[in-house]
Amino acid sequence: MFDRRLLTHFDFFFLSLIMAVSAVGILNLFSATYSWPVAARPIYQKQIFWLMIGLSIAFTLCLFDYRRLRGLAWPLYMGAVLLLGWAALFGKVSMGARRWIDLGFFNLQPSEIMKIVIIIALAYYFSNRSYPQGCALPDLAVPFLLLGIPFVLILRQPDLGTALIVIFIGATLILFVRIRPRSLLLLGGIAAVAPWFGWFFLKDYQKARIQTFLDPESDPLGAGYHIIQSKIAVGGGGFWGRGFLKGPQSQLSFLPERHTDFAFSVFAEEWGFIGCMGLLFLYFLIIIWGIYIAYRSTDKFGRYLSIGVTGMLFWHAVVNLGMVIGLLPVVGVPLPLFSYGGTNMVTTMTGVGLLLNVSMRRYMF
Amino acid sequence: MVASGKNRFFILVAGVAAIFLILLLRLWNLQVIEGHRYRTQSEDNRIRFVPISPARGPVFDRNGELLVENRPSFNLMVLPREVGEKEVLFARLNAFTGQDPETLEKNWQKGRKQPRYLPLALAEDLGWERMELLAENAVDLPGVFVEAQPVRSYPFGDMAAHVLGYMGQIGEEELQKSDYEGHRGGDFIGKSGLERGLEGHLRGEPGNHLIEVDVKGKKLRILRTREPRPGRQVYLTLDRKLQQVLEKAFGDEAGGAVVVNVHSGEVLAMVSSPCFNPAHFAQGISSAEWQQLLEDHRHPLSNKAIQGQYPPGSTFKIVTALAALESGLVKPDRQVFCPGQIHIGNRRFRCWKRGGHGWTDLRKALKESCDVWFYQVGFETGIDRISAMSLGLGLGTATGIELSGEKKGLIPTREWKRRAFKEDWFDGETVNASIGQGFVLTTPLQLAVMTAAVANGGTVYRPYLVSRIEDPSGELIFQNKPTVVNHVDLKEENVRAVREALTAVVNEQRGTAWSSRLEGVRMAGKTGTAQVVKLKDKIPPNREEEVPYRFRDHALFVAFAPADKPEIAMAVVVEHGMHGSSMAAPICQALFAHYFGVQAVGAREGIVPEGD
To answer: Would you kindly state where each structural domain of chain B is located, as residue ranges?
Structure first.
């Protein structure tokens, strides 16, 4: 089954991009948590551990032809929805949100699984159809249903960030599959109006975050604290940065999430614009290469799969970076490969594994 | 969007590039164009969060008596930035208050990596004397101050230590679990007992100070304070007085005992002996003391009331008797002749009384604890009925009490034997099981629950320790109520026959617990002796004291009272106490005497020693 040629076609360039960003991320975590008490195992070591887990998942995925996922698309989707439903009913409540399933040794977050599964499901659905004129609205009924169920379940947890990411992934794929101009216009209109209605369904803390985003100075010591402090850190980095382990904001201040969602602000402060440019360029290369993998892919399923995964990485990065530099509200989305967290690392590396898989089987039928 | 072929990819790349360009422009704006402004802000940015630990919730007994509270521990704190030379500081501290410079250095190193604006603790729990000495010499000690930190305190010392549990610093694994979300390294959490089980209720929510500091990190003023929310207050079912009486009655012996309310499952007292002092854990136990507790062969850290698994010995005869009567095969007046031994199959089984009990019926068999009657009747009843009755009465499964680490005990069945030994069940094993030997294992808590069920006519309640939980404001968060786990349908005449026989055990001459009777209240009970090793045959009865401690039999007693209208039930296991009648029954006697406010009579008179 395993063909030796696969190894020669292995996408070492993409893997090295991923490893480069991870390495910078781990170095940055070392700095972000440098001033922490020594009692616990250092965060950066744990991140290395999660990276290893992630890599082994990615390599394992490469052993199987991704086309086999076609047959698994519906069972996977049903399973993921069931898990989401289970979490909604019996999940563990932590910090006011019900989004975990306690497995004893590990807390499973079904919404993370859903991010990958929705890509597989939509890629499979679209790969079986062709729209020479582009999709009309009726053609999108099933994809909307596929997106809608997890969206509502995740939004209710509540986890606005992840719910939006799922929608963004779906929107990216639908746009890529092509959609008729008139339908696009209509959907664009709905998308512009929906947030105003959505406002009524948001939890108070979510409303507060958006209000704060619009006017952070209104509550500088409360909800606006994150954004203001993050902007000061990023801006204070200047062109050349403060130097590794020398960012006064990062080393002294008490940004509670500076090793997770706000890891990038630590990096920006210490490495400056020059460092940020380099890091952004790496992320840019990852996204472009993901699109290139889709371009090179010889079957529709592989193509849509790659676009979906690339979209997931892209939206994660953009929403997180936008939040950290004050362009978007604080919604709690981690920066892939950079923020600390086992769950996110596993999801990201699963996506990376799928991309590598599509890439190395580009000549096979 | 109508785009075909390569165009689609081109549009994607262009879109991605555009968005990255926006991000980059924003960064350029923040870092280069406005960089100076932000850099100045960052220099001036002197706002920091300092966490404030919440006060842990207090624990009360059923009558509102305080069992666990917090007291201030006065810690010697220092702001490292303000200390000129630490050697000088240490020398002065040593001169003024006698603090050992090496310990000071060690604590200094511990806090080395924390943020510089946070003070670090050089010494914990200073006494008043040292506090005064510090205050007098404050001028010579720049950067040094005293801070009060709440720590656990136990007004009744080591009372009920196993139930309440001890505290310890949060560990690496716990920090990983989402149960402990919001905890930080260095926090103290409940490590055992209810402190652990009720962590979420007791802990409270940390608050914080928003402080302004100067460039060096020195605190200038507090801008805003979010007060911590103290933990919830917990009311237990325990009765402080009963608990103390029970512990006192236990003395220096090792073992476990539990008192439950017969009609609800409320645990009124729970003892495990020997004990540890939870106060020594309140600020972290020294590793030497920890090691000592771990190595103690009498295992002071384990809660023997729920974790000690002992053969129930003759106390199990209650179960065998009920199984036999309920089967309909045996009537209470069934006569078996006890010559001191019996042959079943090709094996000989001995009664503890070498001379035998003569003709014996159920009443006499329980009262004088005749083994031969139970060998014969148990054999006829069969292991299936005996184990079904045991399981029905709550033995062999965890009771579900709120404490972690509860053991299940063991009630053997044919199926279990096949699984565990890949062997069929032997009749001889039924005979052994009939008197609570062989494979049978129970915890003191299970025995108490079983006894309570026999006392109330067959209802098994889940035992519980937490009565209610209240908010700091007094608002009720949780109210516990009795839970029926199982109800065994027992015929009234059978229950009556067993209860009468158990009453005779204590209240009639020749009963094995005659010496532990009460005046005014009739107690019903059953003694038991559990073999630790089988070397009885080689030891003459008058030289038992020469058996090494760890080979001596365990002494058991289960009881309820009043016999005709039961209120409370209890079980006592005294490890290596040798005789249920002389070591375990007097403990029950003392407790019941206190509970009912009556006199104990007959102590140390006419003790009938009981063998296997």
So the answer is: 50-236, 240-273+302-596
Active site residue: B314, B369, B515, B582, which one? B314
Distance from C-alpha of B27 to C-alpha of A213, rounded to nearest angstrom: 17
B221 in contact with chain A, both atoms CB, cutoff 8 A: no
Question: Two tokens at B105?
Answer: 């250095």
Residue A149 pLDDT > 50, yes or no? yes
The predicted structure's pLDDT at residue A213: 64
Give the residue-averaged pLDDT of B434-452.
Answer: 95
CA distances from B558 to B313, B396, B523, B529, B587 (A): 11, 17, 10, 11, 10
Just give the CATH number of B240-273+302-596: 3.40.710.10
Query: In the A/B pair of chains, how many CB contacts fall below 8 A?
Result: 154
B50-236, which class in CATH?
alpha beta
Considering only A53-62, A81-90, B48-57, B450-459, which range has the smallest mean pLDDT? Answer: B48-57
Buried-state track B218-251, b at ≥16 Cβ within 10 A, e below 16 = ebeeeeeebebebbbbbbbbbbbebbbbbbebbe
Note the pLDDT of residue A193. 85
Mean pLDDT of the residues in chain A? 86
Residues of B in contact with A326 (CB under 8 A): 26, 30
What pLDDT was estimated at residue A297?
92
Nearest CA-CA distance, residue A181 and chain B, Å: 5
State the smallest CA–CA distance between residue A331 and chain B in angstroms.
Answer: 17
The rounded distance, in Å, linking the Cα atoms of B235 and B468 is 5
Domain range annotation of chain A: 4-360
Task: Please provide residue B484's backbone torsions phi and psi, each rounded to the nearest 5 degrees.
Answer: -85, 120
Helices (H), A254-341: 263-296, 300-324
Question: Residue B609 pLDDT more than 50?
Answer: no
Residues in chain A within 8 Å Cβ distance of B1: 134, 175, 178-179, 181, 184
Q: Is A235 exposed, middle or buried (0-12, 13-18, 19+ CB in 10 A)?
A: buried
So what's the ipTM on this one? 0.92
Min Cα distance A115 → chain B (Å) is: 20
